[in-house]
């Protein structure tokens, strides 16, 4: 069963205007399928550039997407302005315009400020995900120091790295990727947490800075398909 979109992330862009809005790194997406998630937006829009943040508003059938730079946002808008071009999100063509907002407000564990801790949200987590899974996905880009799995309605993981540069490298590499083909899609964001605290060592809580601690077991099947 698909994981629900985190509606608490919604911050409606009351000032958005499809006609008069100046170019911005934030774009508004309209006519969305209400079942679409942030992961679907990442998959559809990553070809235009690095997506820094995305948030869906299912009951409004809209979303806000923040690109890392203005060139990527322009590229997206210019593409859909061509008469024959369209972008599908979750199987439905959607409409785009620049937002008057310059940033999207972050909520919960997330932060727009670069940090050495990432929060990974896992959508459609039909397979079991634990710290060893997250470690294997991250370590080819930068080695995690500590990982905590948070098992709520939406599965999340806090992952601590040596510095913000390593965290950004991993964020850009895995954001929007599937851990397993067609499911377990990753939304990677910076966290406001200053560190990841480990009170016990188990499958969901691992401190890799302790000598002798390593990934205990591999997980089965094909995995990690980039978006």
Please sum up the structure shown:
The protein has helices spanning 38-45, 70-81, 131-139, 164-174, and strands spanning 26-30, 51-57, 62-67, 88-89, 92-93, 95-98, 110-111, 117-123, 146-150, 155-160, 178-180, 183-191, 205-207. The chain is α+β, with helices and mostly antiparallel strands and 227 residues long. The strands form three sheets. Strands 7, 8, 9, 10, 11, 12 and 13 form a seven-stranded antiparallel sheet that branches. The chain has a four-stranded antiparallel sheet with strand order 2-3-1-6, with helices on one face.
Report what the structure shows.
It comes from Steinernema carpocapsae. Pfam families: RRM_1, RRM_5. InterPro entries: Nucleotide-bd_a/b_plait_sf (IPR012677), RBD_domain_sf (IPR035979), RRM_dom (IPR000504). This is RRM domain-containing protein. Keywords: RNA-binding. This protein is of the alpha+beta class. The protein has four helices and 13 strands. It has helices spanning 38-45, 70-81, 131-139, 164-174; strands spanning 26-30, 51-57, 62-67, 88-89, 92-93, 95-98, 110-111, 117-123, 146-150, 155-160, 178-180, 183-191, 205-207. The strands form three sheets. Strands 7, 8, 9, 10, 11, 12 and 13 form a seven-stranded antiparallel beta sheet that branches. The chain has a four-stranded antiparallel beta sheet with strand order 2-3-1-6, with helices on one face. Strands 4-5 form a two-stranded antiparallel sheet. Mean pLDDT is 84; it is low at 1-20 and 216-225. It folds into two domains: 26-98, Alpha-Beta Plaits, CATH 3.30.70.330; 117-207, 2-Layer Sandwich (Alpha-Beta Plaits).
């Amino acid at each position: 069963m698909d994981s629900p979109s985190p509606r608490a992330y919604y911050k409606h862009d009351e000032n958005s205007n499809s006609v008069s809005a100046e170019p911005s790194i934030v774009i508004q997406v309209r006519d969305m399928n209400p079942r679409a998630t942030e992961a679907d937006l990442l998959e559809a829009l990553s070809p235009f550039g690095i997506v820094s943040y995305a948030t869906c508003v299912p009951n409004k059938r809209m979303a806000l997407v923040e690109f890392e730079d203005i060139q990527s946002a322009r590229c997206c808008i210019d593409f859909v302005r061509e008469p024959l071009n369209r972008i599908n999100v979750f199987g439905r063509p959607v409409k785009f315009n620049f937002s008057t907002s310059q940033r999207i407000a972050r909520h919960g564990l997330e932060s727009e400020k670069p940090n050495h801790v990432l929060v990974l949200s896992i959508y459609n987590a039909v397979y079991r995900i634990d710290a060893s899974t997250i470690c294997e996905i991250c370590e080819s880009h930068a080695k995690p120091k500590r990982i905590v799995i948070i098992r709520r309605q939406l599965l999340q993981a806090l992952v601590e790295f040596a510095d913000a540069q390593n965290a950004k490298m991993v964020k850009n590499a895995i954001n929007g990727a599937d851990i397993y083909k067609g499911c377990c899609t990753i939304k990677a964001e910076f966290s406001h947490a200053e560190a990841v605290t480990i009170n016990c060592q188990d499958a969901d809580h691992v401190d890799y800075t302790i000598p002798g601690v390593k990934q205990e077991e591999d997980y089965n099947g094909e995995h990690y398909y980039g978006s």
